[in-house]
From TrEMBL:
It comes from Sesamum indicum. GO terms for cellular component: cytoplasm. This is protein-tyrosine-phosphatase. Its main location: cytoplasm. PANTHER family: RECEPTOR-TYPE TYROSINE-PROTEIN PHOSPHATASE (PTHR19134), TYROSINE-PROTEIN PHOSPHATASE 1 (PTHR19134:SF449). Residues 57-325 form the Tyrosine-protein phosphatase domain. Residues 244-316 form the Tyrosine specific protein phosphatases domain. It is found in: Cytoplasm.
Amino acid sequence: MSNTAASFSTGAAAAKSFDLSAVSSPKRWLLSEDQLRHCYEALKVFKGKRFGSPQTIHHEFQILEARRMEALEMRSRCTVALNSVHQRKNRYTDVLPFDDNRVILKQHKDYKPSAMGYINASFVMTSESVSRFIATQGPLPNTSEDFWEMVLQYHCPAIIMLTRLVDGTYAVKCGDYFQAEDGPREFGNICITTKWIQTTDTSLILRCLEVKNKESDVSPLSVLHIQYPEWPDHGVPKDTVAVREIFKRVSAIPPSLGPIVVHCSAGIGRTGTYCLIHNTIQRVLIGDMTALDLVTTITTFRSQRIGMVQTMEQYLFCYDAIVDELEDLISVSNSHGGSH
């Protein structure tokens, strides 16, 4: 098991329950003097590039594209995913989890004996001090139970869904693994109950779900499910407001809890874009200024899941969202009289 996967296992074992009411409204930070200074410093760098030197950003993405992993190397690192037993569990044949940091489900001797605990999902992180993620594909009808087993096994407190179930061309982008306004839903051994639903002004759909293994005495796990259906496949939203609202809600969850599940359809483009924005802002706030180097962060993410952040447009959107959020953090703190 890789260091990345090992750290997720230990983190999950230590997970405690988290009060979801803390994320029912977006978090408003009042920054310390140090945090304010870090935000100003980061903002100067990101804004300078975005508005003063956009060709630099284009050059950065060209560097990333030149380093893209070739299909042959991917196949050599994804031997479990390519096992014929597992191929029907992959939504796309060219987006597969690497052997060394794939999520491994516990074996079920009774009714799922083989399969090596396979799910198309990858552990993604930069350090223990900020949120850890599970980046995964939108569940298929035949992998919904596996998906919920993963959420239970790793005590995942939140799921961020960055896709519709069906896009504008009627192409299915994700199986319906959660919707149940009229009562519980069952996926094999797992029962999902929707406790509440709310829609925000920014078109986010929030759900509090209770997830339980029917054969276990363990009390249900409360999970915050945030769906952002307006984010187009391969594209970017028209503004950064909703993405930053997701960040404000989810970053209230302590990193010491289980990993945050992020998925779109393939689990690399929109998923990688969100993970980069969230990770960068969190690291700036703790004074980790290596976060200013987005190329290195994406290179790390791509070593953990192929193709994270797919397009130049998505890469530019990362800069826009980070700039907007840093400006917002600074302005809220300044309006409250500076540091606290």
